[in-house]
Amino acid sequence: MARLNITLPDELAAALQGLAEEKKIASVSGFLADGARLKLALLRDASTIDDLFGPPSPDEQAMVDRLVERGAPDRRDVA
């Protein structure tokens, strides 16, 4: 296993350490590793979709950007 020395904002580091102390997460490093795995999987999926369908149009990208900025999509069927 490789070791990385990363820098986190104080507020984020304190929040993660607090969660570990409260036993809400097993460990800070495990939590960060799980998050990194998820993000990598999403990036790989996005690359595959771009390979199949091409990059998003400006309208599609704007919609994705809005969803990401808000944090969670509206709970309604948009199909």
DSSP strand tally: 0
Relative strand content: under 5%
Which percent range fits the helix content? 55-70%
As residue ranges, the low-confidence spans are: none
Number of helices: 3
Write the layout of secondary structure elements.
Elements: H1 10-21, H2 28-53, H3 58-70
Q: What features would you describe in this structure?
A:
The protein is mainly α. It has one domain (10-70). Helices cover 65% and strands 0% of the residues. It contains 3 helices and no strands. The protein has helices spanning 10-21, 28-53, 58-70. The chain starts with 9 loop residues before the first helix and ends in a 9-residue tail after the last helix. The mean pLDDT is 86.
Keywords, separated by commas or semicolons:
single chain, 79 residues, mainly alpha, 3 helices, 65% helix, elongated
Offer a concise description of the structure.
By secondary structure, the protein is mainly alpha-helical.
